[in-house]
Amino acid sequence: MEESILKVERLSHRYSVQWAVRDISLEISKNGIYGLLGSNGAGKSTMMNIICGVLKQTEGSVHIKGINMRENPVAAKRHIGFLPQQPPLQMDLTVEEYLEYCSFMRDVPSKEVNKAIDKALDRCGISHFRKRVIHNLSGGYQQRVGIAQAIIHEPAIVVLDEPTNGLDPNQIVEVRHLIKDIAQDRTVILSTHILPEVQATCEYIRMIEQGTLVFSGSVDEFDNYIVPSTVEVSLIARPPVEDLRSGIPGVLQVEELGGTRYRLHFADAQEALERVAEVSATRGWRLNELNMEKSSLDAIFAELSKK
Ligand SMILES: Nc1ncnc2c1ncn2[C@@H]1O[C@H](COP(=O)(O)OP(=O)(O)OP(=O)(O)O)[C@@H](O)[C@H]1O
């Protein structure tokens, strides 16, 4: 039987009167990148803080490699690295000084500190910046330092809260590469409210909304829920709405969006773009613009709630 890396049982958390997390159970027993997906306020940070032992839950339990986080936090935390939403960087230290401090905080044996720092710097591609004061690094490199501190003690699990937040597109791509690299020999849990972030980086998804777990499965399984079902089209010729509904195979409903723009609802949007383009051409509707609309997290949540 595979050893459980993370086991969360019946976890609930309440801030004064409001429940932020309600009765969540989940288990991870295979390495990989797990996306914790949910809208703003869904309860992701609360979950991550509890898993990392930064916040004490109201009810339920968290086990890291079989160790109860509440009963034995020091031992459990040896197996976990955490990069919170606000990276805990000491801006006036050099990268090396900061990682030395983190090694101390993480109980890395003193004779292994230099090796641990070299390894984390190398892994995160920042060896050449070891003498640089953190304040003088770009956002993307500061995030790399944040990831280096999360892996300095070689934990089995690394938890990253919104790791690409505030980075420019190039930095986002680089940080995603780095996350995939560090996940080769450990479990990474990454929280985000951005669906494409999960699709680009993760293999598995756990989705929470309003404090409860609404989906648990692979990214491929999740994609079955987000097959887009609407197409936005702009036609120069202004055909009657009824012609759009009856003329294009599979259209259930047509919404008029103003001017010559329409939203077409399909039961199954597979090949919808091709169908709209083909019919527009044969009927002389003069296609101006055509877009497949992606489901929002809210729409996916509504869909999942029906299951
Ligand atoms: N310290 C706190 N005191 C009171 N309520 C809080 C506190 N922290 C979070 N909450 C509330 O708990 C709920 C869950 O918040 P949480 O930060 O865990 O969500 P999230 O999914 O991480 O959202 P975001 O993506 O915006 O960070 C929200 O309604 C939030 O307002």
From TrEMBL:
The keyword Plastid does not apply. It holds the Pfam family ABC_tran. Residues 6-235 form the ABC transporter domain. GO terms for molecular function: ATP binding; ATP hydrolysis activity. InterPro entries: AAA+_ATPase, ABC_transporter-like_ATP-bd, P-loop_NTPase. Coiled coil: none annotated. It comes from the Bacteria. Keywords: ATP-binding, Nucleotide-binding, Transport. Belongs to the ABC transporter superfamily. This is ABC-2 type transport system ATP-binding protein. The lineage of its organism: Bacteria, Pseudomonadati, Bacteroidota, Bacteroidia, Bacteroidales.
